[in-house]
Amino acid sequence: MKVTLTGIKADVGSIGGHICPSEELLAAVERTVVEQGRGLIIDHRLNYIGDDVSILMTHDRGIDDESVHRLAWDAFLAGTQVAKDQGLYGAGQDMLKDAFSGNTRGLGPAVAEMEFEERPNEPFLMFTADKTEPGAYNLPLFLAFSDPMYNAGLILSPVGGKGYRFTVMDVDHSGGDRVVELVTPEDIYDLAALLRDNGRFVVESIHSRHDGDIAVSSCTTRLRNIAGKYVGKDDPIMLVRTQRNFPATGEILAPFEICHYVSGFMRGSHVGPMMPVKAKSSVSFFDGPPVVSCLAFSVRDGKMTGPVDAFDHPYWDWVREKAAQKAHGIREQGFSGPAMLGIHDLEYVGISHRLDALDGRFVVRSEAP
Ligand code: 13P
Ligand code: 13P
Ligand code: MG
Ligand code: MG
User: Fold this and answer.
1) Residue pLDDT, tens place only, 277-300
2) Ligand 1 pocket test: which of 121, 150, 243 has the largest number of ligand atoms within 8 Å of its C-beta?
3) Residues, beta carbon < 5 Å, ion ligand 3
């Protein structure tokens, strides 16, 4: 059958700062999805990472379906109400508009969606991350889909060897989606030139060049563009189909062992390593470090089996140690140089206010006679 996977993720409030949602908040979201989703969706799973709640739904209504998006919006509104009642921090943080207007894209929550004809065996992964931005997935996607050092299938599998088509969005552009399509392996250097800039260019989707089938759908939300100011980081969600015409699950996971440095961390204004963690992990040190979780599923006729927690394995304990050391390394230098984001990417206005105030105190020395 033709199935649609819809993953929608939002921060609607958390306990003790930006740490994690409450049981009661999660129960309210779940209740709404169950009650209002009857007859609309086939299956669903609720999860969280840090302070962000994700709703994964399967249905046969295609992407951007108004009723499915409204269901997620209403569920997050119910969660927001509980967050307010409990005095949770940042209640309704990602609900940036007062009213639902047909699609949750552009209203605050992060959305990753794909529609496809189910293969006889249909494995897929859901990645969710906290204290970082959508471009954090750029490097792992680039490596998993175009580098044989990570993806052995590029040379071992005749299908994988045909390469992939990346659709990349310029998320700085407002007033319509500005996108470009690049194919691997031919355009690999152009792709790297774009994807090095995680704050501006973000992988939106990836398709197989063997049969045109969709492999990846990732969110491209920029909360700052919606709200006009910093209201929290655009903690991203991504769906990835694996095996056969796509990379193997382990090939998709492999680049996450790098724990590459991403933007986010404390106040969304720093640089920190992305630590692969178990699902339902919270954050701690310096409101971080940035964390990513990965749940693995199989789907048949829209019914999901799983999840299995892909980062819940002894190998990743060692990787987490490495991430902690990398976090310590960059935190040792506090606000200096690359540890804090550049002035244009800073999520807080405090520094620009200070610089403005200091402006009048600068003097230009007259040249010596
Ligand atoms: P199996 O031979 O166990 O199916 O594994 C194939 C594969 O894709 C491993 O990455
Ligand atoms: P979130 O974007 O996860 O809410 O975190 C915001 C923040 O400022 C953490 O220090
Ligand atoms: Mg928050
Ligand atoms: Mg968050």
Assistant:
1) 999 999 999 999 999 999 999 999
2) 243
3) 11, 18, 51, 90, 232
